[in-house]
């Protein structure tokens, strides 16, 4: 399964593509889309959309995994993150690519074994899991790869459980 992980943000949006299945993952690509914080918000969103479209066309993911926006005391940060999330959802949906949301705790638990892991631990485990010589930087890039790994591992397991439940007439 090929997964595009998206760590949404309007100033920095992390993108990571992973080919994986439970217990195995290989990095295909990683990057960060940057927009100037003092730029026109509409133009920044259009630029983000173009970059996401380019990644979707180039890497043809089976699914997009996006970090779920969580409440914060800084409403401006929450809103710009929500805008970036909406652009990711829109670009994937236009191409018929399913979008799955994961909380930061889910991603940390999938990658490190602990939902309380800090950013350094997540980056270290992403580096180890993918067999990278250098840790992905900035943290947005590592987080995007962690999202993709989480979906590749957990998403495949959940799909199998759903199929089993459906076959048994439970869903």
TrEMBL record:
- Residues binding Mg(2+) 2 are 67
Catalytic site residues? 7, 67, 140
Keyword Transcription attached: no
Reactions accelerated catalytically: Endonucleolytic cleavage at a junction such as a reciprocal single-stranded crossover between two homologous DNA duplexes (Holliday junction)
One Pfam match, given by its short name, reads RuvC
Note on cofactor: Binds 2 Mg(2+) ion per subunit.
Q: What is its EC number?
A: 3.1.21.10
* InterPro entries the UniProt entry points to: RNaseH-like_sf, RNaseH_sf, X-over_junc_endoDNase_Mg_BS, X-over_junc_endoDNase_RuvC
Gene3D superfamilies, per database record: Ribonuclease H-like superfamily/Ribonuclease H (3.30.420.10)
Intracellular or extracellular location(s)? Cytoplasm
- Keyword Zinc-finger assigned: no
Tell me which domain of life the UniProt entry assigns to the organism this sequence originates from: Bacteria
- PROSITE patterns, alphabetized: RUVC
Where, by residue number, does Mg(2+) 1 bind? Answer: 7, 140
List UniProt keywords, sorted A-Z: Cytoplasm, DNA damage, DNA recombination, DNA repair, DNA-binding, Endonuclease, Hydrolase, Magnesium, Metal-binding, Nuclease
The Swiss-Prot or TrEMBL record lists the needed cofactor(s) as:
Mg(2+)
Role this protein plays: The RuvA-RuvB-RuvC complex processes Holliday junction (HJ) DNA during genetic recombination and DNA repair. Endonuclease that resolves HJ intermediates. Cleaves cruciform DNA by making single-stranded nicks across the HJ at symmetrical positions within the homologous arms, yielding a 5'-phosphate and a 3'-hydroxyl group; requires a central core of homology in the junction. The consensus cleavage sequence is 5'-(A/T)TT(C/G)-3'. Cleavage occurs on the 3'-side of the TT dinucleotide at the point of strand exchange.
Can you tell me which family this protein belongs to?
A: Belongs to the RuvC family.
Q: Which NCBIfam families match?
A: PRK00039.2-1, ruvC
Q: How does it assemble?
A: Homodimer which binds Holliday junction (HJ) DNA. The HJ becomes 2-fold symmetrical on binding to RuvC with unstacked arms; it has a different conformation from HJ DNA in complex with RuvA. In the full resolvosome a probable DNA-RuvA(4)-RuvB(12)-RuvC(2) complex forms which resolves the HJ.
Q: What is this protein called?
A: Crossover junction endodeoxyribonuclease RuvC
* Organism field: Ornithinibacter aureus
The organism that produces this protein has a lineage beginning with:
Bacteria, Bacillati, Actinomycetota, Actinomycetes, Micrococcales
């Amino acid at each position: 399964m090929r997964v595009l992980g998206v760590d949404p943000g309007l100033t920095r949006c992390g993108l990571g593509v992973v080919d994986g299945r439970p217990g195995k993952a290989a990095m295909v690509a990683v990057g960060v889309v940057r927009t100037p914080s003092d730029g026109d918000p509409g133009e920044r969103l259009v630029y983000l959309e173009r970059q996401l479209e380019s990644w979707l066309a180039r890497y043809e993911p089976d699914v997009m995994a996006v970090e779920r926006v969580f409440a914060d005391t800084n409403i401006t940060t929450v809103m710009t993150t929500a805008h970036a999330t909406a652009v990711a959802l829109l670009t994937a949906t236009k191409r018929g690519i399913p979008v799955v949301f994961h909380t930061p705790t889910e991603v940390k638990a999938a990658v490190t074994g602990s939902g309380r892991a800090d950013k350094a631990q997540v980056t270290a485990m992403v580096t180890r899991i993918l067999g990278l010589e250098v840790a992905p930087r900035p943290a947005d890039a590592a987080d995007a790869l962690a999202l993709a790994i989480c979906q590749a591992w957990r998403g495949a397991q959940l799909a199998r459980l759903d199929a089993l439940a459906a076959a048994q007439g439970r869903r």
